[in-house]
Amino acid sequence: MKKTNEKSRMIIVFEQTLDTRACNELEEELIRAMDDCESNGLPVVFDLTEVDFIASSFLRLCMKASRQLGSENVSIVNVAPPIKKVFKIAGFTDYLSIC
Amino acid sequence: MEKSVDLVDDVLTRALSAAAIFSQLNQKKTDRIVRAVYEAGLNNRIKLARMAADETGIGKWEDKVIKNVVATQYVYESIKNQKTVGIISEDHESGISEIAQPIGPILAIIPCTNPTSTVMFKILIALKTRNPIIISSHHRALECCREAVRLCYEAALNADAPDDCIIFFERGSRDDTRNLMCDKRLALILATGGESVVKAAYSSGTPALGVGAGNVPVFIEETADIAFASEQIMLSKTFDNGTICASEQSLVVDGKIADAFAADLISRGARFLTDEEMSAVANIAFDSQKLTMTPEVVGQSAIRVAEMAGISVKPETKLLVAPLKSVGCQCPLSCEILAPIVAWYVVDGFDEAVKTCIDLNFHGGIGHTVSIYSNDEDKIKRFAVTMNAGRVLVNTPSSQGAVGGLYNRLNPSLTLGCGTGGKNITMDNVTAGHLLNIQRLARRRVNERMEHFDASLYFDPEIDAQTIERLFNLNR
């Protein structure tokens, strides 16, 4: 996970397989990043360019971010088609920007 | 009401997430999960059987072990090599490839007669098809089903299954179940149970695979091996004290062999009832208001049923036999009763036997199962085509025969479809294949006859059907 702070937003780039183990490892860092965004009033962008698998834990992290920052302040970008389908089936595309 | 909606919303949100994650798994990962769950189920077959028998007070734990084995080992064997992910078949000639897609969250309704076995069976076929499953148990079997779910879920997670791929529905009220059934996020209801729950499933607006009631007639034809038929029927009808809906309900015996057959049954523990005794048994076994069996007798032993009816029987009695003359609610023991009670009809020849079986088959058991003991292939076929039954079993104990895998090559299943007669969409033994959406990738293969046919002829009022057919097939 790589974090980039821009003036108007924070971009987090995730790597390859976001299975349960990977999610557990990055959870603390992600929570801190969300706290930063909240205190600075910044929206967050999750970049999934390199991601080929996500586990339930990652869906929960996305939901958590959405609740903390507001769904309008969370966007998920550069998703591969199978990952787009995952978000679609789970119903996340109803309230999050996913492209 | 709000609380109920919250509960349903929570369950379905979790199930949808599981469905989403499941969609990424390949065949190998899916099969690994299925294997882990099958092993957990089979390893706990005895514990779960004892729990089910103790909690429900229905049937025998030893027979429930066998049911658990069928639901795990036999079901696993039948599905383990099945392709259920991605492209499952390709036909180059037709240009059609079939692609298996999961259907989404499934609600499984579990009966109290076969609780843990049905739980494990439904979990296995759901996981094999990458569908999350929500288990809703009969209130008399909550603990054993909860434990079966816990064991299967733990094994599934250890094999890297998605979180919430198996959910035990801790229902609080009828509203919860109704709201869950009606929710548009639910993909399918897999309903095994009594008529009311199956009807509720079909009425919910959600696609449902249900079952119908059985009232299984068995024709013992004159060429049957008497001792063999008698042994098999005793084995089947007393199995788990008659709780399987495919168990024999009526014996229709050709008069030429009736005495010998009756003597053989008696030697194996059958007890023929007198008219007075039949009335006494009917009073405790049949609810004349609801026109159905009473729950009190379901899965009780023959001795216990006799005791409830105030009848004195020998301690070795295993089966109560009721000689009847007609079929219908005026003869309560001709109706389905899931206990070791069986009706007995003596008939004159093949045609009379088949007519009696038709009456029984259509008296509450349309589409379910019928059985014949015979060594005359012609009569077996004539019998089969006359019946309305998803399973016509030959020289086979019907309880074990209908569930498949043990005595024939039917798909092992604890959900037996009864076709439209039983108000079901399928007559099959329901299995993994029923839980998939099959997409067809259809490549261009133009119909050559259409290409060579002058389509303007369709607009000529003088051209009739025969001419069109002739010209259409001219270059075939």
Report Rg of chain A.
12 Å
Per CATH, the architecture of chain A is 2-Layer Sandwich
Bin the strand percentage of chain A: 15-25%
Kindly report the average pLDDT value of chain B: 95
Overall helicity of chain A: 40-55%
Strand order of the largest sheet of chain A: 1-2-4-6-7
What's the number of structural domains of chain A?
1
- Low-pLDDT stretches of chain B are none
CATH topology of chain A: Transcription Regulator spoIIAA
Distance between the termini of chain A: 19 Å
* Helical/strand content category of chain A: alpha/beta
List low-pLDDT spans of chain A.
Answer: none
Spatially, the strands of the biggest sheet of chain B line up as 10-13-14-9-8-15-16
Largest sheet of chain A: 5 strands, mixed
So how many helices of chain B? 17
Number of helices of chain A: 3
Largest interface: A-B, 18 and 15 residues
What helical percentage do the residues of chain B reach? Answer: 40-55%
Total number of β-strand segments of chain B?
17
> Cα distance, first to last residue of chain B?
66 Å
